[in-house]
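Support reply, case 0932

Customer input (verbatim):
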Amino acid sequence: MRKDKAQRRCLQWLIPAATVGLVVMMMQLFLGRMPGQLRTLSPVDGVLDITGVDLSREVVNVQNNWDFYPGVLYTSEDFAAGEATADSGDGSNSQYGTYRLVIKALPEQYYTLCSYSIDYSTRVFVNGVEAASFGTVADNADGSVPRIGYMTIPLYSGETGEIEIIYQFSNFVHRDGGFIQPTYLSAPQNMEEFKAGNALVSLSISGGLLVLFMYFLLCAAVQRRISFLLLAVCCMMMALRDQNFLVVHALSPDTSWYFAYRVFMGVTSLLPGLVLLLLGSMYRGAVKKLPALVHTAVMVIEAVLIAVVPTIWLVTVCAAAWCCALFYLLYLAWSIVRYYIRRKTFDAADVLTVCGAAVIIISILLEALFVNSSSAVSRYGIMPWGMLVFDLLMAAAISLRVRAQEIALAESRSHGEMLESMNAMNLDFLHQVAHELKTPLTVISGYAQLTGLQMSSGNISSETPENLRVIRNEALRLSDMVTKLLEFSYGRTSEAKFAAVEVGPLLDSIRAICTPMCLKNNNSLEIKGKNCPDIYGSAEMLLQIFINLVTNASRHTQDGLITISATDRERQDCVVFRVEDTGSGIDPETLPHIFEKGYSGDGRSGLGLAICREAVESHGGRLEVERTGLEGTVFAFTVMKREAQT
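Our regenerated output:
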Protein backbone atom coordinates (compact mmCIF):
# COMPACT_ATOMS: atom_id res chain seq x y z
CA MET A 1 0.00 0.00 0.00
CA ARG A 2 2.77 2.39 0.93
CA LYS A 3 4.71 1.46 -2.22
CA ASP A 4 1.68 2.25 -4.40
CA LYS A 5 1.29 5.60 -2.68
CA ALA A 6 4.97 6.39 -3.22
CA GLN A 7 4.68 5.43 -6.90
CA ARG A 8 1.73 7.78 -7.34
CA ARG A 9 3.67 10.59 -5.71
CA CYS A 10 6.61 9.84 -8.02
CA LEU A 11 4.34 10.17 -11.07
CA GLN A 12 2.84 13.38 -9.71
CA TRP A 13 6.30 14.95 -9.57
CA LEU A 14 7.42 13.58 -12.93
CA ILE A 15 4.38 14.19 -15.16
CA PRO A 16 4.73 18.03 -15.35
CA ALA A 17 8.41 17.82 -16.36
CA ALA A 18 7.70 15.11 -18.93
CA THR A 19 4.81 17.12 -20.35
CA VAL A 20 6.95 20.24 -20.82
CA GLY A 21 9.77 18.28 -22.42
CA LEU A 22 7.52 16.39 -24.81
CA VAL A 23 5.63 19.54 -25.84
CA VAL A 24 8.91 21.31 -26.63
CA MET A 25 10.16 18.37 -28.67
CA MET A 26 6.90 18.11 -30.62
CA MET A 27 6.95 21.85 -31.39
CA GLN A 28 10.50 21.61 -32.69
CA LEU A 29 9.85 18.52 -34.76
CA PHE A 30 6.68 19.73 -36.47
CA LEU A 31 6.89 23.52 -36.46
CA GLY A 32 10.57 24.41 -36.74
CA ARG A 33 13.01 24.12 -39.64
CA MET A 34 16.60 23.63 -38.59
CA PRO A 35 19.54 24.64 -40.83
CA GLY A 36 20.46 21.04 -41.44
CA GLN A 37 17.14 20.59 -43.25
CA LEU A 38 17.93 23.33 -45.82
CA ARG A 39 19.72 23.11 -49.16
CA THR A 40 23.19 24.65 -49.13
CA LEU A 41 24.44 26.85 -51.99
CA SER A 42 28.15 27.55 -52.31
CA PRO A 43 29.59 30.73 -53.88
CA VAL A 44 32.29 30.30 -56.54
CA ASP A 45 35.05 32.93 -56.52
CA GLY A 46 32.87 35.22 -54.44
CA VAL A 47 29.83 34.87 -56.76
CA LEU A 48 26.57 33.07 -55.88
CA ASP A 49 24.43 32.18 -58.88
CA ILE A 50 20.74 31.73 -57.97
CA THR A 51 19.23 32.29 -61.40
CA GLY A 52 18.14 28.65 -61.54
CA VAL A 53 16.83 28.49 -57.97
CA ASP A 54 13.18 29.12 -57.17
CA LEU A 55 13.47 30.95 -53.85
CA SER A 56 9.74 31.51 -53.77
CA ARG A 57 9.44 27.90 -52.66
CA GLU A 58 12.43 27.33 -50.39
CA VAL A 59 15.02 28.84 -48.10
CA VAL A 60 18.68 28.14 -48.87
CA ASN A 61 21.74 28.20 -46.64
CA VAL A 62 24.53 30.24 -48.24
CA GLN A 63 27.93 28.71 -47.57
CA ASN A 64 30.24 31.29 -46.04
CA ASN A 65 33.25 31.14 -48.39
CA TRP A 66 32.94 34.78 -49.42
CA ASP A 67 35.81 36.85 -50.72
CA PHE A 68 37.83 38.10 -47.76
CA TYR A 69 40.00 41.20 -47.47
CA PRO A 70 41.87 41.30 -44.12
CA GLY A 71 43.18 44.45 -42.52
CA VAL A 72 41.15 46.83 -44.73
CA LEU A 73 37.66 48.29 -44.68
CA TYR A 74 36.53 48.41 -48.31
CA THR A 75 33.40 49.98 -49.78
CA SER A 76 31.65 49.48 -53.09
CA GLU A 77 33.63 52.37 -54.57
CA ASP A 78 36.90 50.61 -53.72
CA PHE A 79 35.77 47.45 -55.48
CA ALA A 80 34.51 49.45 -58.47
CA ALA A 81 37.93 51.15 -58.71
CA GLY A 82 39.67 47.78 -58.67
CA GLU A 83 41.72 48.55 -55.58
CA ALA A 84 40.65 45.51 -53.53
CA THR A 85 42.81 42.40 -53.23
CA ALA A 86 41.12 39.20 -51.91
CA ASP A 87 42.55 36.76 -49.37
CA SER A 88 41.78 33.07 -49.07
CA GLY A 89 41.49 33.22 -45.27
CA ASP A 90 38.32 33.19 -43.19
CA GLY A 91 39.00 36.20 -40.99
CA SER A 92 39.78 34.18 -37.84
CA ASN A 93 43.16 35.88 -37.34
CA SER A 94 42.30 39.44 -38.33
CA GLN A 95 41.18 42.25 -36.06
CA TYR A 96 39.26 43.94 -38.86
CA GLY A 97 38.52 43.34 -42.51
CA THR A 98 35.93 43.08 -45.27
CA TYR A 99 33.81 40.27 -46.74
CA ARG A 100 32.18 40.57 -50.17
CA LEU A 101 29.61 38.47 -52.00
CA VAL A 102 28.02 39.05 -55.39
CA ILE A 103 24.65 37.38 -56.00
CA LYS A 104 23.55 36.77 -59.62
CA ALA A 105 19.76 36.55 -59.77
CA LEU A 106 16.94 37.16 -62.18
CA PRO A 107 16.26 40.88 -62.78
CA GLU A 108 13.63 42.76 -60.81
CA GLN A 109 13.45 40.20 -57.98
CA TYR A 110 13.06 40.80 -54.25
CA TYR A 111 14.85 38.66 -51.70
CA THR A 112 15.63 38.70 -47.99
CA LEU A 113 18.93 37.80 -46.36
CA CYS A 114 18.92 36.72 -42.71
CA SER A 115 21.88 36.17 -40.45
CA TYR A 116 23.52 37.21 -37.25
CA SER A 117 25.95 40.05 -37.41
CA ILE A 118 29.59 39.09 -37.20
CA ASP A 119 30.43 38.78 -33.52
CA TYR A 120 31.94 42.04 -32.22
CA SER A 121 30.98 44.87 -34.66
CA THR A 122 29.52 44.80 -38.16
CA ARG A 123 28.45 47.18 -40.92
CA VAL A 124 26.58 45.87 -43.97
CA PHE A 125 26.35 47.47 -47.41
CA VAL A 126 24.00 46.35 -50.18
CA ASN A 127 24.78 47.74 -53.66
CA GLY A 128 26.83 50.54 -52.06
CA VAL A 129 24.12 51.59 -49.57
CA GLU A 130 24.52 50.92 -45.82
CA ALA A 131 21.77 48.45 -44.91
CA ALA A 132 22.58 47.60 -41.27
CA SER A 133 25.04 48.48 -38.56
CA PHE A 134 25.81 46.79 -35.21
CA GLY A 135 28.27 48.57 -32.98
CA THR A 136 30.97 50.74 -34.51
CA VAL A 137 33.43 49.38 -37.05
CA ALA A 138 36.91 50.93 -36.93
CA ASP A 139 40.52 50.07 -37.71
CA ASN A 140 41.66 50.77 -34.14
CA ALA A 141 40.70 49.65 -30.63
CA ASP A 142 39.68 53.10 -29.47
CA GLY A 143 37.13 53.61 -32.21
CA SER A 144 35.72 50.07 -32.34
CA VAL A 145 32.58 49.35 -30.28
CA PRO A 146 31.40 45.71 -30.22
CA ARG A 147 27.80 44.61 -30.51
CA ILE A 148 25.85 41.65 -31.86
CA GLY A 149 22.38 41.42 -33.39
CA TYR A 150 20.09 39.56 -35.73
CA MET A 151 19.96 40.93 -39.26
CA THR A 152 17.08 40.91 -41.74
CA ILE A 153 18.28 42.64 -44.91
CA PRO A 154 16.02 43.23 -47.94
CA LEU A 155 17.65 42.65 -51.36
CA TYR A 156 16.59 43.86 -54.82
CA SER A 157 18.27 42.54 -57.97
CA GLY A 158 17.32 45.54 -60.14
CA GLU A 159 17.65 45.58 -63.90
CA THR A 160 21.09 43.91 -63.95
CA GLY A 161 20.13 41.04 -61.65
CA GLU A 162 23.28 41.55 -59.55
CA ILE A 163 23.36 42.18 -55.78
CA GLU A 164 26.60 43.18 -54.06
CA ILE A 165 26.81 42.49 -50.31
CA ILE A 166 29.71 43.84 -48.24
CA TYR A 167 30.40 43.06 -44.59
CA GLN A 168 32.85 45.25 -42.69
CA PHE A 169 33.91 44.05 -39.26
CA SER A 170 36.32 44.98 -36.48
CA ASN A 171 37.35 43.01 -33.38
CA PHE A 172 39.71 44.28 -30.71
CA VAL A 173 38.19 42.47 -27.73
CA HIS A 174 38.86 38.85 -28.63
CA ARG A 175 41.73 36.69 -29.84
CA ASP A 176 39.71 35.34 -32.76
CA GLY A 177 38.93 37.46 -35.78
CA GLY A 178 35.51 37.88 -37.34
CA PHE A 179 33.78 35.18 -39.33
CA ILE A 180 30.42 35.17 -41.03
CA GLN A 181 27.55 33.53 -39.20
CA PRO A 182 25.15 31.15 -40.98
CA THR A 183 23.41 33.08 -43.76
CA TYR A 184 19.96 32.29 -45.20
CA LEU A 185 18.43 33.56 -48.42
CA SER A 186 14.88 33.34 -49.78
CA ALA A 187 11.87 35.29 -50.97
CA PRO A 188 10.52 37.73 -48.35
CA GLN A 189 7.40 35.68 -47.57
CA ASN A 190 9.36 32.44 -47.15
CA MET A 191 11.93 34.20 -45.03
CA GLU A 192 9.30 35.53 -42.65
CA GLU A 193 7.95 32.04 -42.19
CA PHE A 194 11.49 30.74 -41.72
CA LYS A 195 12.26 33.40 -39.11
CA ALA A 196 9.02 32.66 -37.28
CA GLY A 197 9.85 28.96 -37.26
CA ASN A 198 13.37 29.57 -35.95
CA ALA A 199 12.05 31.99 -33.35
CA LEU A 200 9.54 29.34 -32.29
CA VAL A 201 12.33 26.77 -32.02
CA SER A 202 14.45 29.10 -29.92
CA LEU A 203 11.59 30.27 -27.71
CA SER A 204 10.12 26.81 -27.27
CA ILE A 205 13.30 25.06 -26.23
CA SER A 206 14.70 27.91 -24.11
CA GLY A 207 11.29 28.80 -22.72
CA GLY A 208 10.63 25.15 -21.95
CA LEU A 209 13.98 24.90 -20.17
CA LEU A 210 13.13 28.00 -18.13
CA VAL A 211 9.78 26.46 -17.19
CA LEU A 212 11.63 23.33 -16.11
CA PHE A 213 14.06 25.56 -14.20
CA MET A 214 11.22 27.05 -12.17
CA TYR A 215 9.58 23.66 -11.71
CA PHE A 216 12.75 21.93 -10.50
CA LEU A 217 13.52 24.94 -8.30
CA LEU A 218 10.12 24.43 -6.68
CA CYS A 219 10.88 20.72 -6.30
CA ALA A 220 14.18 21.60 -4.63
CA ALA A 221 12.41 23.95 -2.20
CA VAL A 222 9.66 21.46 -1.36
CA GLN A 223 11.73 18.29 -1.19
CA ARG A 224 14.99 19.94 -0.07
CA ARG A 225 17.17 18.00 -2.48
CA ILE A 226 20.39 19.38 -3.95
CA SER A 227 19.93 17.23 -7.06
CA PHE A 228 16.75 19.12 -8.01
CA LEU A 229 18.53 22.45 -7.42
CA LEU A 230 21.43 21.48 -9.67
CA LEU A 231 18.99 20.24 -12.31
CA ALA A 232 17.17 23.59 -12.16
CA VAL A 233 20.42 25.56 -12.61
CA CYS A 234 21.44 23.35 -15.55
CA CYS A 235 18.08 24.06 -17.23
CA MET A 236 18.49 27.82 -16.79
CA MET A 237 22.06 27.87 -18.10
CA MET A 238 21.18 25.78 -21.13
CA ALA A 239 18.30 28.15 -21.92
CA LEU A 240 20.68 31.14 -21.83
CA ARG A 241 23.30 29.28 -23.87
CA ASP A 242 21.19 29.75 -27.00
CA GLN A 243 22.50 33.09 -28.32
CA ASN A 244 19.37 33.61 -30.37
CA PHE A 245 17.28 33.48 -27.19
CA LEU A 246 19.81 35.37 -25.06
CA VAL A 247 20.49 38.25 -27.46
CA VAL A 248 17.20 38.61 -29.33
CA HIS A 249 14.64 37.67 -26.67
CA ALA A 250 16.16 37.69 -23.16
CA LEU A 251 18.29 40.86 -23.24
CA SER A 252 17.21 44.33 -24.21
CA PRO A 253 18.60 45.79 -27.49
CA ASP A 254 20.80 48.30 -25.66
CA THR A 255 22.48 45.69 -23.44
CA SER A 256 26.25 46.02 -23.32
CA TRP A 257 28.08 43.56 -25.52
CA TYR A 258 30.62 42.98 -22.74
CA PHE A 259 27.88 41.91 -20.33
CA ALA A 260 26.14 39.64 -22.87
CA TYR A 261 29.45 38.10 -23.89
CA ARG A 262 30.46 37.38 -20.28
CA VAL A 263 27.07 35.81 -19.60
CA PHE A 264 27.40 33.58 -22.63
CA MET A 265 30.99 32.55 -21.84
CA GLY A 266 30.05 31.93 -18.21
CA VAL A 267 27.21 29.66 -19.24
CA THR A 268 29.39 27.85 -21.80
CA SER A 269 32.26 27.26 -19.38
CA LEU A 270 30.30 26.34 -16.23
CA LEU A 271 27.52 24.20 -17.69
CA PRO A 272 29.59 20.99 -18.12
CA GLY A 273 30.87 21.24 -14.54
CA LEU A 274 27.34 21.72 -13.19
CA VAL A 275 26.13 18.69 -15.12
CA LEU A 276 28.91 16.63 -13.56
CA LEU A 277 28.03 17.91 -10.08
CA LEU A 278 24.44 16.83 -10.72
CA LEU A 279 25.59 13.35 -11.72
CA GLY A 280 27.78 13.20 -8.62
CA SER A 281 24.82 14.13 -6.41
CA MET A 282 23.02 11.05 -7.71
CA TYR A 283 25.81 8.84 -6.32
CA ARG A 284 26.51 10.25 -2.87
CA GLY A 285 27.65 6.88 -1.65
CA ALA A 286 30.18 6.53 -4.48
CA VAL A 287 31.59 10.05 -4.85
CA LYS A 288 33.69 11.39 -2.01
CA LYS A 289 33.04 14.86 -0.69
CA LEU A 290 36.57 16.22 -1.13
CA PRO A 291 36.77 15.86 -4.95
CA ALA A 292 33.27 17.33 -5.27
CA LEU A 293 34.23 20.27 -3.04
CA VAL A 294 37.43 20.85 -5.01
CA HIS A 295 35.50 20.76 -8.28
CA THR A 296 32.95 23.21 -6.87
CA ALA A 297 35.73 25.53 -5.68
CA VAL A 298 37.33 25.45 -9.13
CA MET A 299 33.98 26.38 -10.70
CA VAL A 300 33.60 29.31 -8.29
CA ILE A 301 37.09 30.54 -9.25
CA GLU A 302 36.18 30.20 -12.94
CA ALA A 303 33.00 32.23 -12.40
CA VAL A 304 34.98 34.99 -10.68
CA LEU A 305 37.57 35.04 -13.46
CA ILE A 306 34.88 35.26 -16.12
CA ALA A 307 33.42 38.26 -14.32
CA VAL A 308 36.70 40.20 -13.92
CA VAL A 309 39.32 39.24 -16.54
CA PRO A 310 39.55 41.12 -19.87
CA THR A 311 37.34 39.63 -22.57
CA ILE A 312 40.35 38.64 -24.60
CA TRP A 313 41.11 35.95 -22.00
CA LEU A 314 37.61 34.52 -21.66
CA VAL A 315 38.10 31.77 -24.22
CA THR A 316 41.23 30.67 -22.33
CA VAL A 317 39.27 30.56 -19.07
CA CYS A 318 36.52 28.58 -20.79
CA ALA A 319 39.03 26.06 -22.17
CA ALA A 320 40.58 25.67 -18.71
CA ALA A 321 37.11 25.11 -17.22
CA TRP A 322 36.42 22.35 -19.71
CA CYS A 323 39.76 20.70 -18.92
CA CYS A 324 39.00 20.77 -15.19
CA ALA A 325 35.57 19.31 -15.90
CA LEU A 326 37.23 16.56 -17.93
CA PHE A 327 39.38 15.56 -14.93
CA TYR A 328 36.33 15.43 -12.68
CA LEU A 329 34.48 13.45 -15.37
CA LEU A 330 37.21 10.80 -15.32
CA TYR A 331 37.08 10.63 -11.51
CA LEU A 332 33.30 10.44 -11.60
CA ALA A 333 33.31 7.63 -14.17
CA TRP A 334 35.84 5.65 -12.11
CA SER A 335 33.85 6.13 -8.89
CA ILE A 336 30.53 5.16 -10.47
CA VAL A 337 31.94 2.04 -12.13
CA ARG A 338 33.49 0.97 -8.82
CA TYR A 339 30.17 1.68 -7.09
CA TYR A 340 28.25 -0.64 -9.41
CA ILE A 341 30.90 -3.35 -9.15
CA ARG A 342 30.68 -3.32 -5.38
CA ARG A 343 26.89 -3.06 -5.19
CA LYS A 344 26.24 -5.69 -7.86
CA THR A 345 22.76 -4.33 -8.56
CA PHE A 346 21.39 -2.10 -11.31
CA ASP A 347 17.86 -0.79 -10.85
CA ALA A 348 15.62 1.42 -13.00
CA ALA A 349 16.94 4.65 -11.46
CA ASP A 350 20.48 3.59 -12.31
CA VAL A 351 19.49 2.88 -15.93
CA LEU A 352 17.91 6.32 -16.28
CA THR A 353 20.87 8.05 -14.66
CA VAL A 354 23.44 6.31 -16.85
CA CYS A 355 21.41 6.97 -20.01
CA GLY A 356 20.97 10.63 -19.08
CA ALA A 357 24.68 10.98 -18.39
CA ALA A 358 25.54 9.35 -21.70
CA VAL A 359 23.18 11.64 -23.64
CA ILE A 360 24.46 14.90 -22.13
CA ILE A 361 28.13 13.94 -22.20
CA ILE A 362 27.94 12.84 -25.84
CA SER A 363 26.16 16.06 -26.81
CA ILE A 364 28.77 18.15 -24.96
CA LEU A 365 31.65 16.29 -26.59
CA LEU A 366 30.13 16.58 -30.06
CA GLU A 367 29.70 20.32 -29.72
CA ALA A 368 33.22 20.60 -28.34
CA LEU A 369 34.52 18.80 -31.44
CA PHE A 370 32.55 20.94 -33.89
CA VAL A 371 32.85 24.30 -32.14
CA ASN A 372 35.75 25.36 -34.36
CA SER A 373 34.24 24.07 -37.59
CA SER A 374 30.67 25.25 -37.18
CA SER A 375 29.81 28.78 -36.16
CA ALA A 376 26.21 27.69 -35.61
CA VAL A 377 26.94 25.59 -32.52
CA SER A 378 25.77 28.23 -30.04
CA ARG A 379 22.52 28.77 -31.93
CA TYR A 380 21.39 25.47 -33.40
CA GLY A 381 23.58 22.88 -31.71
CA ILE A 382 22.47 19.46 -30.53
CA MET A 383 23.18 20.16 -26.86
CA PRO A 384 19.75 21.73 -26.13
CA TRP A 385 18.15 18.55 -27.41
CA GLY A 386 20.54 16.55 -25.26
CA MET A 387 19.68 18.73 -22.27
CA LEU A 388 15.94 18.17 -22.73
CA VAL A 389 16.40 14.40 -22.86
CA PHE A 390 18.83 14.63 -19.96
CA ASP A 391 16.33 16.64 -17.89
CA LEU A 392 13.56 14.12 -18.41
CA LEU A 393 15.76 11.13 -17.64
CA MET A 394 17.32 12.73 -14.58
CA ALA A 395 13.95 13.94 -13.27
CA ALA A 396 12.65 10.39 -13.60
CA ALA A 397 15.76 8.98 -11.89
CA ILE A 398 15.53 11.48 -9.03
CA SER A 399 11.83 10.73 -8.62
CA LEU A 400 12.52 7.00 -8.50
CA ARG A 401 15.23 7.52 -5.90
CA VAL A 402 12.88 9.72 -3.87
CA ARG A 403 10.24 7.00 -4.10
CA ALA A 404 12.76 4.37 -2.97
CA GLN A 405 13.76 6.54 -0.02
CA GLU A 406 10.11 7.11 0.90
CA ILE A 407 9.48 3.37 0.80
CA ALA A 408 12.58 2.77 2.92
CA LEU A 409 11.41 5.46 5.35
CA ALA A 410 7.94 3.91 5.49
CA GLU A 411 9.46 0.50 6.14
CA SER A 412 11.69 2.03 8.79
CA ARG A 413 8.68 3.63 10.44
CA SER A 414 6.82 0.33 10.23
CA HIS A 415 9.82 -1.38 11.79
CA GLY A 416 9.85 1.26 14.52
CA GLU A 417 6.16 0.77 15.14
CA MET A 418 6.73 -2.96 15.31
CA LEU A 419 9.53 -2.44 17.82
CA GLU A 420 7.28 -0.19 19.89
CA SER A 421 4.56 -2.83 19.76
CA MET A 422 7.03 -5.51 20.79
CA ASN A 423 8.27 -3.29 23.59
CA ALA A 424 4.70 -2.80 24.79
CA MET A 425 4.16 -6.56 24.61
CA ASN A 426 7.35 -7.12 26.61
CA LEU A 427 6.20 -4.65 29.24
CA ASP A 428 2.80 -6.37 29.31
CA PHE A 429 4.55 -9.70 29.67
CA LEU A 430 6.68 -8.38 32.53
CA HIS A 431 3.56 -7.07 34.26
CA GLN A 432 1.90 -10.44 33.89
CA VAL A 433 4.99 -12.27 35.16
CA ALA A 434 5.23 -9.93 38.12
CA HIS A 435 1.54 -10.48 38.85
CA GLU A 436 1.90 -14.26 38.60
CA LEU A 437 5.00 -14.34 40.79
CA LYS A 438 3.45 -12.07 43.38
CA THR A 439 0.58 -14.46 44.17
CA PRO A 440 2.60 -17.45 45.48
CA LEU A 441 4.95 -15.05 47.28
CA THR A 442 1.93 -13.49 49.03
CA VAL A 443 0.68 -16.94 50.08
CA ILE A 444 4.12 -17.97 51.30
CA SER A 445 4.52 -14.71 53.21
CA GLY A 446 1.07 -15.01 54.81
CA TYR A 447 1.49 -18.61 55.98
CA ALA A 448 5.04 -17.94 57.12
CA GLN A 449 3.83 -15.03 59.26
CA LEU A 450 0.97 -17.13 60.68
CA THR A 451 3.28 -20.04 61.50
CA GLY A 452 5.82 -17.65 63.00
CA LEU A 453 3.18 -16.17 65.30
CA GLN A 454 2.07 -19.66 66.36
CA MET A 455 5.62 -20.75 67.11
CA SER A 456 6.52 -17.52 68.95
CA SER A 457 3.48 -17.87 71.18
CA GLY A 458 4.05 -21.60 71.70
CA ASN A 459 0.62 -22.30 70.26
CA ILE A 460 1.65 -25.05 67.87
CA SER A 461 -1.36 -26.98 66.68
CA SER A 462 -2.31 -29.51 64.04
CA GLU A 463 -2.62 -26.65 61.53
CA THR A 464 1.10 -25.85 61.69
CA PRO A 465 2.26 -28.83 59.58
CA GLU A 466 -0.51 -28.01 57.11
CA ASN A 467 0.71 -24.43 56.92
CA LEU A 468 4.23 -25.63 56.20
CA ARG A 469 2.88 -27.93 53.50
CA VAL A 470 1.12 -24.98 51.83
CA ILE A 471 4.35 -22.97 51.98
CA ARG A 472 6.23 -25.86 50.42
CA ASN A 473 3.64 -26.31 47.66
CA GLU A 474 3.63 -22.62 46.83
CA ALA A 475 7.44 -22.57 46.79
CA LEU A 476 7.41 -25.47 44.34
CA ARG A 477 4.80 -23.69 42.20
CA LEU A 478 6.93 -20.54 42.25
CA SER A 479 9.98 -22.57 41.24
CA ASP A 480 8.01 -24.13 38.38
CA MET A 481 6.92 -20.68 37.17
CA VAL A 482 10.53 -19.43 37.20
CA THR A 483 11.63 -22.54 35.27
CA LYS A 484 9.01 -21.91 32.61
CA LEU A 485 10.02 -18.26 32.44
CA LEU A 486 13.61 -19.30 31.77
CA GLU A 487 12.44 -21.74 29.11
CA PHE A 488 10.48 -18.95 27.47
CA SER A 489 13.47 -16.59 27.50
CA TYR A 490 15.62 -19.20 25.72
CA GLY A 491 12.96 -19.98 23.14
CA ARG A 492 11.94 -23.29 24.71
CA THR A 493 8.51 -22.28 25.93
CA SER A 494 6.44 -25.26 27.00
CA GLU A 495 2.72 -25.16 26.54
CA ALA A 496 0.32 -25.64 29.41
CA LYS A 497 -0.47 -29.33 29.83
CA PHE A 498 -4.18 -30.18 29.84
CA ALA A 499 -5.39 -33.31 31.60
CA ALA A 500 -8.13 -34.57 33.88
CA VAL A 501 -8.46 -32.44 37.03
CA GLU A 502 -10.39 -33.54 40.14
CA VAL A 503 -12.63 -30.72 41.35
CA GLY A 504 -12.52 -31.71 45.07
CA PRO A 505 -8.72 -31.61 45.49
CA LEU A 506 -8.58 -28.44 43.37
CA LEU A 507 -11.01 -26.68 45.71
CA ASP A 508 -9.11 -27.97 48.78
CA SER A 509 -5.91 -26.46 47.42
CA ILE A 510 -7.72 -23.19 46.83
CA ARG A 511 -9.04 -23.22 50.42
CA ALA A 512 -5.55 -23.78 51.81
CA ILE A 513 -3.96 -21.07 49.67
CA CYS A 514 -6.64 -18.42 49.89
CA THR A 515 -7.68 -18.65 53.52
CA PRO A 516 -4.72 -16.59 54.83
CA MET A 517 -5.32 -14.04 52.08
CA CYS A 518 -8.92 -13.58 53.20
CA LEU A 519 -7.96 -13.16 56.85
CA LYS A 520 -6.21 -9.85 56.07
CA ASN A 521 -9.59 -8.08 55.86
CA ASN A 522 -11.29 -10.37 58.40
CA ASN A 523 -13.06 -12.26 55.63
CA SER A 524 -13.99 -15.92 55.79
CA LEU A 525 -13.78 -18.38 52.91
CA GLU A 526 -16.47 -21.00 52.13
CA ILE A 527 -16.20 -23.85 49.60
CA LYS A 528 -19.25 -25.54 47.98
CA GLY A 529 -19.74 -28.33 45.41
CA LYS A 530 -16.67 -30.47 45.88
CA ASN A 531 -18.50 -33.52 44.51
CA CYS A 532 -18.60 -32.38 40.87
CA PRO A 533 -17.19 -34.69 38.19
CA ASP A 534 -13.67 -34.30 36.89
CA ILE A 535 -12.93 -31.47 34.47
CA TYR A 536 -10.41 -31.18 31.61
CA GLY A 537 -7.78 -28.47 31.87
CA SER A 538 -4.58 -27.22 33.48
CA ALA A 539 -4.64 -27.45 37.27
CA GLU A 540 -2.02 -24.71 37.54
CA MET A 541 -3.94 -22.28 35.33
CA LEU A 542 -7.21 -23.00 37.12
CA LEU A 543 -5.55 -22.47 40.47
CA GLN A 544 -4.22 -19.12 39.23
CA ILE A 545 -7.72 -18.10 38.07
CA PHE A 546 -9.22 -18.77 41.50
CA ILE A 547 -6.35 -17.04 43.29
CA ASN A 548 -6.77 -13.88 41.19
CA LEU A 549 -10.55 -13.82 41.64
CA VAL A 550 -10.36 -14.45 45.40
CA THR A 551 -7.62 -11.83 45.78
CA ASN A 552 -9.81 -9.22 44.05
CA ALA A 553 -12.87 -10.26 46.06
CA SER A 554 -11.02 -10.07 49.38
CA ARG A 555 -9.57 -6.66 48.47
CA HIS A 556 -13.06 -5.16 48.06
CA THR A 557 -14.69 -6.99 50.99
CA GLN A 558 -14.35 -6.16 54.71
CA ASP A 559 -15.58 -8.48 57.48
CA GLY A 560 -17.51 -10.44 54.91
CA LEU A 561 -17.84 -13.83 53.27
CA ILE A 562 -16.21 -15.10 50.09
CA THR A 563 -17.79 -18.20 48.59
CA ILE A 564 -16.28 -20.52 45.96
CA SER A 565 -18.80 -22.92 44.45
CA ALA A 566 -18.96 -25.51 41.70
CA THR A 567 -21.96 -27.15 40.02
CA ASP A 568 -22.49 -29.51 37.07
CA ARG A 569 -26.28 -29.18 36.95
CA GLU A 570 -26.58 -26.00 34.92
CA ARG A 571 -24.63 -27.20 31.89
CA GLN A 572 -24.48 -30.72 30.55
CA ASP A 573 -20.93 -30.55 29.25
CA CYS A 574 -19.41 -28.05 31.67
CA VAL A 575 -18.85 -27.36 35.34
CA VAL A 576 -19.80 -23.83 36.38
CA PHE A 577 -17.53 -22.21 38.98
CA ARG A 578 -18.45 -19.06 40.88
CA VAL A 579 -16.53 -16.72 43.18
CA GLU A 580 -18.98 -14.66 45.22
CA ASP A 581 -18.28 -11.92 47.75
CA THR A 582 -20.31 -9.62 49.99
CA GLY A 583 -18.24 -6.55 49.19
CA SER A 584 -18.98 -3.10 47.81
CA GLY A 585 -19.51 -4.21 44.21
CA ILE A 586 -18.07 -2.82 40.96
CA ASP A 587 -18.59 0.78 39.82
CA PRO A 588 -21.01 0.84 36.81
CA GLU A 589 -18.56 3.06 34.87
CA THR A 590 -15.74 0.60 35.49
CA LEU A 591 -17.71 -2.56 34.78
CA PRO A 592 -17.47 -2.48 30.91
CA HIS A 593 -13.67 -2.24 31.07
CA ILE A 594 -12.67 -4.63 33.84
CA PHE A 595 -11.39 -7.30 31.41
CA GLU A 596 -9.25 -4.84 29.39
CA LYS A 597 -5.50 -5.15 29.86
CA GLY A 598 -4.01 -2.24 31.73
CA TYR A 599 -7.38 -0.89 32.91
CA SER A 600 -7.85 -0.63 36.64
CA GLY A 601 -10.33 1.25 38.75
CA ASP A 602 -8.10 1.28 41.85
CA GLY A 603 -4.70 2.21 40.35
CA ARG A 604 -3.31 -1.35 40.08
CA SER A 605 -1.81 -3.06 37.03
CA GLY A 606 -5.16 -3.99 35.51
CA LEU A 607 -3.90 -7.42 34.41
CA GLY A 608 -5.47 -9.88 36.86
CA LEU A 609 -8.93 -10.18 35.29
CA ALA A 610 -7.49 -10.01 31.77
CA ILE A 611 -5.23 -12.95 32.61
CA CYS A 612 -8.17 -14.84 34.11
CA ARG A 613 -10.32 -14.32 31.00
CA GLU A 614 -7.52 -15.53 28.69
CA ALA A 615 -6.97 -18.59 30.87
CA VAL A 616 -10.70 -19.43 30.93
CA GLU A 617 -11.00 -18.98 27.17
CA SER A 618 -8.02 -21.30 26.65
CA HIS A 619 -10.15 -23.93 28.43
CA GLY A 620 -13.02 -23.31 26.01
CA GLY A 621 -15.08 -21.45 28.60
CA ARG A 622 -16.20 -17.91 29.30
CA LEU A 623 -15.63 -15.63 32.30
CA GLU A 624 -18.26 -13.02 33.11
CA VAL A 625 -19.77 -10.94 35.89
CA GLU A 626 -23.14 -12.46 36.80
CA ARG A 627 -24.09 -9.87 39.36
CA THR A 628 -22.65 -6.83 41.10
CA GLY A 629 -24.01 -4.23 43.46
CA LEU A 630 -24.18 -3.24 47.12
CA GLU A 631 -24.78 -6.88 48.10
CA GLY A 632 -21.55 -7.98 46.45
CA THR A 633 -20.20 -9.37 43.19
CA VAL A 634 -20.40 -12.78 41.54
CA PHE A 635 -17.87 -13.93 38.91
CA ALA A 636 -18.75 -17.12 37.00
CA PHE A 637 -16.81 -19.20 34.50
CA THR A 638 -17.13 -22.60 32.88
CA VAL A 639 -14.69 -25.47 32.31
CA MET A 640 -15.36 -28.49 30.10
CA LYS A 641 -15.97 -31.85 31.78
CA ARG A 642 -13.44 -34.54 31.10
CA GLU A 643 -16.08 -36.84 29.67
CA ALA A 644 -17.02 -34.16 27.14
CA GLN A 645 -13.46 -34.29 25.77
CA THR A 646 -13.39 -38.05 25.26
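We compared this against your earlier run and they match. Two observations from our side: The chain has three domains: 2-35+216-413, 39-186, 495-646. Residues 383-456 form the longest helix (74 residues). Please reopen the case if you see a mismatch on your end.
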